[in-house]
Write a structure and sequence with these properties.
2-enoyl-CoA Hydratase, Chain A, domain 1, globular, 12 helices, alpha/beta, Lyase 2-enoyl-coa Hydratase, Chain  A, domain 2, 259 residues, binds acetoacetyl-coenzyme A, six-stranded mixed β-sheet
C-alpha cells in the first residue's frame, strides 16, 4: 500500500518504528484513508521481527485534531454503518507490540482517542487534550467516553465530554492520562528514549505483558489474575527468559533474541 497521509520509518532507531501522521494543513484530521493507512502500517510493523516498539506522532502543531469533520458532515447513519470506520480502530487496538503516542499541540476528539488507544503517551508542554465532539452536535465514538473515563475518572471525563473543554499536558499528567510532559522541542526525542528502553526488553515478554495489562480493563480481578498467571508461565517457554535470568546471575546486560 502506498501511503499518502502518513510517513513510516521502520527503523527510526534500533528496533523502533516511527509513524508520523502527515496532513499538516488539516491539523492531521483523521480521514478514512489516513486511518486505513495507519492500520496497514501497524499490521506490517507488528509482523516485522526487527520492530519491538512503535511510536505514533504528528507535528508540533497537532497530533490530530480529530476525525475529519468535512468528510463526516453529510454522512447518514446508514453510511456510517456501511463504512464501519471503527473496525479500523479496533484493528489498531489489536497491535501486539507496545505503541507510544508522542503528542504535541492538539490531540482532540479522534486524536485524543487515538493517543488513548496507544499504550503510553509522551507529550510536549503545549499539548492540549480534549473531546470537543459535543460542540459539533455529536459525541465521542472511538473510545472517548470509555478510555478517558477509565484513565481520568468520572468527574473530569464528564466535564470534558459534556463541555468539550481542553486540558493541558500538565493537567493530563496529573489526571493520569499521560506518562510525561516535556518541553515541546524534545517531545519526540523523549518518546524515542522511552521506546528505546522498551525495545531492549524481550519482545515476547512485552507482548504478553501488554496483553495482560489491557485485559485488566475487560475482566474482573480473579479472571484477570488467572490470565496474568498463564501469560507469566508462558514467558518461561522463551529463550529470552533463560537469557534474562542468566544475564542477571552473570551480572551482565541481557541480550534478548525474541525467541
Ligand atoms: N476535521 C477537518 N478539518 C479540520 C479539523 C477536523 N477535525 N480540525 C481542523 N481542521 C482544519 C480546519 O478546517 C482548517 O482548514 P481550512 O484552513 O481549510 O479551513 C485547518 O484544519 C486549520 O484549522 P483552524 O483554522 O480551525 O485552526 P485553529 O488553530 O483556529 O483551531 C482547532 C484549531 C481548535 C483544533 C480547530 O481546528 C478545531 O476545533 N477543530 C475541530 C476539533 C474537533 O471538533 N474534533 C473532533 C472531531 S469529531 C471526532 O473526532 C469524532 C470521533 O470521536 C471519532
Amino acid at each position: 500500500m502506498n501511503y499518502e497521509f502518513i510517513l513510516v520509518t521502520p527503523e527510526a532507531k534500533k528496533h523502533i518504528a516511527l509513524i508520523q501522521l502527515n496532513r499538516p494543513k488539516e491539523l492531521n484530521a483523521l480521514n478514512l484513508q489516513l486511518m486505513l493507512e495507519l492500520k496497514d502500517a501497524l499490521q506490517n510493523l507488528d509482523k516485522n521481527d526487527e520492530v519491538r516498539c512503535i511510536i505514533i506522532t504528528g507535528n508540533q502543531q497537532a497530533f490530530a485534531a480529530g476525525a475529519d469533520i468535512k468528510q463526516m458532515e453529510s454522512r447518514t447513519p446508514v453510511d456510517l454503518i456501511k463504512i464501519d470506520q471503527f473496525e479500523t480502530w479496533d484493528q489498531i487496538r489489536k497491535t501486539s507490540k507496545p505503541i507510544i503516542a508522542a503528542v504535541c499541540g492538539f490531540a482532540l476528539g479522534g486524536g485524543c482517542e487515538l493517543a488513548m488507544t496507544c499504550d503510553m503517551i509522551v507529550a510536549g508542554e503545549s499539548a492540549k487534550f480534549g473531546q470537543p465532539e459535543i460542540k459539533i452536535g455529536i459525541m465521542p465514538g472511538a473510545g472517548g467516553t470509555q478510555r478517558l473515563t477509565r484513565a481520568v475518572g468520572k468527574a473530569l471525563a464528564m466535564e470534558m465530554v459534556l463541555t468539550g473543554k481542553f486540558i493541558s499536558a500538565e493537567e493530563a499528567q496529573k489526571a493520569g492520562l499521560i506518562n510525561r510532559v516535556v518541553p515541546d522541542e524534545v517531545y519526540l526525542d523523549e518518546a524515542l528514549k522511552l521506546a528505546s528502553e522498551v525495545a531492549t526488553m524481550s519482545p515476547i515478554a512485552l507482548r504478553l505483558a501488554k496483553e495482560s495489562v489491557l485485559k485488566s480493563f475487560e475482566t474482573g480481578l480473579q479472571e484477570g489474575l488467572y490470565f496474568e498467571r498463564k501469560n507469566f508461565y508462558l514467558t518461561f517457554s522463551s529463550e529470552d527468559q533463560k537469557e534474562g535470568m542468566n544475564a542477571f546471575v552473570e551480572k551482565r546486560r541481557a541480550n534478548f533474541s525474541g525467541k
